[in-house]
Amino acid sequence: MNDLKKILIIGSAGQIGSELVLKLRSLYGNDNIIASDLKDTPTESIANGPYEKVDINDSKRIVEVVKKYNIDSIINFAAILSANGEKNPMLAWNVNINGYMNILEIARELNLKRILTPSSIAAFGPSTPRENTPQETVLKPTTIYGITKVTGELLGDYYVKKYGLDVRGLRYPGIISHETLPGGGTTDFAVAIYFDAIKYKKYTCFVSEPTRLPMMYMPDCLKATVDLLQADKDKLIHHSDFNVGAMSFSAGELAQSIKKYIPDFEIIYKPDFRQAIADSWPMSIDDSAARNEWGWKPEYDLDAMTKDMLSAISEKHEKGII
Ligand code: NAD
Ligand code: SER
């Protein structure tokens, strides 16, 4: 179902937004995907189409941009992630929740067609079953980021039920990519390890060797996002909180996968405050609701991702970009 005409993406300059802008422009046309973020001008990678400076906490400005482009749908990627959130809980609440409420209210008032906001595996907590974490389970996170993600899911579902707004969301696992660096989360080690493997053949990891988390490669993240965005509304039983899985591995297994290509790669483990966050999250995810309701199916496993990541980062290294 491809019924959307003009989409505004808020928080477009980050790890996922910067790639989703390009993916959606290839599907909907450059002029129909309006990128936005806090800076005055777009980052180079998303400069191939319209861009506006938008702070999610500035409702007036969002309404101005929605009216200027006749926007019918908003994708909200503005967020303060888990590790940065622990350093500034008030900012995390203000952006992730007060900002999100602005979007929901504007969508309700202006009768927008669809809203998509990601949730995260951070919505779960230490009392949630950690293996094959079910769709419906205990949601008692211990980070401010996780608390905002659960609240965001509940708010989204509230607007669906109370106002009939079409709000969608998915609980991304840790996202791994090589175009834009991640923005201060706990799963960032799974990206940094590839860059350091190419640059130094050595990585100091901030979680321990057996730490196992659900992860996903960027092409699958983009596919999941577009598939849910375009899913047939009548087939959706869930709305703001779809579990989505792809792969699950420990930091040690990730290092082993890199060693297959770089045999003299070395890793040392120096866990910091992010270890406790990782230990409170699931190790693997049951995503059968996403599979049944909108046909979710990932393509990449750990070795396929490692091959692709190392090849892309090596190319950047050879060109002197990193
Ligand atoms: P990111 O930190 O890389 O990017 C977030 C963007 O939001 C940044 O460009 C930042 O400038 C912008 N932003 C911050 N405050 C803003 C404000 N007040 N107004 C407008 N923009 C603002 O994050 P990401 O990894 O691209 O995450 C996108 C979404 O996916 C978030 O909701 C995040 O919680 C979720 N998510 C990401 C991951 C992951 O591994 N990357 C995993 C689970 C969920
Ligand atoms: N990758 C994110 C983080 O670590 C998960 O939502 O914060």
Structural class estimated from helices and strands: alpha/beta
| Bound small molecules, deduplicated | nicotinamide-adenine-dinucleotide, serine
- Report the biggest beta sheet as strand number plus sense, adding barrel if it closes: 6 strands, parallel
Run of helices and strands = EHEEHEHHEEHEEEHEEHEEHEHHH
Q: In percent terms, what proportion of residues is strand?
A: 15-25%
- From the coordinates shown, what is the CATH architecture of the largest domain? 3-Layer(aba) Sandwich
CATH fold label of the largest domain: Rossmann fold
Total of domains:
2
Count of alpha and pi helical runs: 11
Give the rounded overall mean pLDDT: 98
Radius of gyration: 19 Å
Key traits:
322 residues, alpha/beta, UDP-galactose 4-epimerase, domain 1, 6-stranded parallel beta sheet, globular, binds nicotinamide-adenine-dinucleotide, binds serine
